[in-house]
Write a structure and sequence with these properties.
about 300 residues, mainly alpha, MetI-like fold, 2 domains, about 80% helix, transport, Alpha-glucoside transport system permease protein AglG, transmembrane helix, MetI-like, MetI-like_sf
């Protein structure tokens, strides 16, 4: 047998073993991903099932017993939405979250464009200082800002919450968008300037249309933060008629008004909105974060 034939026979014998090894790796990877999905989704499933169970069923059996004897009730959602004020709190959460998201994306994009595409003295120092201040805990500014808004008479309105939420996230948004804006080819921007385009026109007609994915990731991130915040709305709005869903659910947990199943229904309402958002838009979130993290 020649050397070429011996080598061919060795390759033929190795190929089945290589294919088997790759198949086993794929099976192990898929099994690990499936296990993580089950671990992550089980608490959400238990919460969802409990919202359709009566108080007596929940006190006697575990939530998994619903798959053996399914007796759904809708009274938990009715009580959560109308009797405990969760329905009004959902509207308040939307009113707090949507302007916060829009303002964060707009101001972050403007700041990142100025730092990445405009040349002025102190630009690098300003960027480094902004990044450095992100390590400070946000709780440090709450008391001084509360005193300020008390002095100007804005407490008890949505305005302080909008300002605080945007102020805490805009530095990170600028940092995220800076990398992506810097990676846009300079020739494209210079060609627009040669054609007579002003800086606002370059920003709105060139930079923003090219940055859809990273802007979407920032919007999703800010939506999750603003929707789930408890401390800031509790400090500046209290637990009155303007309280968002997180404050209302916390109040229900403390007072146990309506029972455990009503509390689970209210909690699921607060969870389902960001859950659907992040699951449906996860590819844009990952693409935008990677786009903002990698330069060039």
């Amino acid at each position: 047998m020649s050397a070429i034939e011996s080598r061919r026979a060795a390759l033929i014998s190795v190929r089945p073993a290589s294919k088997l090894g790759n198949r086993l790796k794929r099976i192990a990877l898929h099994s690990a991903v499936l296990l993580l999905c089950v671990v992550w989704f089980t608490p959400v499933l238990s919460l969802f099932v409990t919202t359709f169970r009566s108080e007596s069923d929940s006190s006697l059996t575990g939530w998994w017993h619903a798959f053996i004897e399914w007796r759904p009730v809708l009274s938990n959602y009715v009580e959560a939405m109308y009797l405990t004020g969760v329905g009004r709190s959902v509207v308040n959460s939307i009113v707090l979250t949507v302007p916060t998201v829009l303002g964060t994306v707009l101001f972050s994009a403007i700041g990142a464009f100025a730092l990445a595409r405009m040349r002025f003295r102190g630009r690098i120092a300003l960027f480094l200082a902004m990044v450095g201040f992100q390590v400070l805990p946000p709780q440090l500014v709450l008391v001084p800002m509360l005193k300020f808004f008390l002095a100007v008479g804005l407490t008890g309105t949505f305005i302080p919450v909008w300002i605080i939420e945007m102020g805490l996230t805009v530095p990170f948004g600028i940092f995220l968008l800076y990398g992506f804006f810097s990676s846009i080819p300079s020739d494209l921007v210079e060609a627009a300037r040669i054609d007579g385009a002003s800086e606002p026109r370059i920003f709105f007609q060139i930079i923003l249309p090219l940055s859809g994915a990273v802007l979407a990731s920032l919007a999703i991130l800010q939506f999750m933060i603003a929707w789930n915040h408890l401390l800031i709305p509790l400090i500046f709005l209290g637990s009155g008629s303007l309280s968002p869903l997180t404050v209302q659910v916390a109040s229900l947990a403390q007072t146990n008004a309506g029972g455990l199943n009503t509390l689970t229904a209210a909690t699921f309402i607060s969870v389902i909105v960001p859950l659907v958002l992040i699951v449906s838009l996860q590819k844009y979130f990952v693409r935008g974060v990677l786009g903002g993290a990698v330069k060039g």
